[in-house]
Amino acid sequence: MSLESVLIAAGTGVKAFGQIQAGVAASRFARAEAKYLDIQAKDEIQRGVLEERRLRLDIRRFLGTQRTAIGASGAELSGTSLELLGDTAALGEEDTLAIRSGAARRAFGKRTQATITRARGRFAKRKGVSDAFTTLLTGGAQAYGTI
Q1: Can you give the pTM of this predicted structure?
Q2: What percentage of residues in the chain have a pLDDT greater than 70?
Q3: How many Å apart are CA 21 and CA 62, to the nearest integer?
Q4: 119 half-sphere exposure, CB direction, 13 A CA radius
Q5: 16, 92, 111, 124: most buried by Cβ count inside 10 Å?
Q6: How many CA atoms lie within 13 A of 98 on its CB side?
Q7: Could you tell me which residues come within 8 angstroms of residue 111 by beta carbon, excluding any fewer than 6 positions away?
């Protein structure tokens, strides 16, 4: 076996090892990124819950202000004034549902990104192994050709 074939074989081995390590590193990075995206998804839901609670509190306060104004004006709590309170409550409920669905959509987007990132990491790991195998085959053929 010539020195040239030994050097080709050694270089091939080092390159293949590097390709495997690069795939493993990319996979680990993707897992960490996916974990972070999962945390962000949970955070989106929690922030949505808090925002929804704040809005519900604001709606209750506003309904109280409306009742006070209706009572202070001497109007009865029936007919148009009752419809006003019902409309305020209904519009407030629509707003809280919009907050909830917005938070759910954002969380879904983060979870979807996490899933894609995990898949990308698995692919990178497999690609590293595949590239290393190809390198070993090619390098082996080159080394054999120099014998």
Answers
A1: 0.77
A2: 99
A3: 61
A4: 6
A5: 16
A6: 7
A7: 37, 38, 41
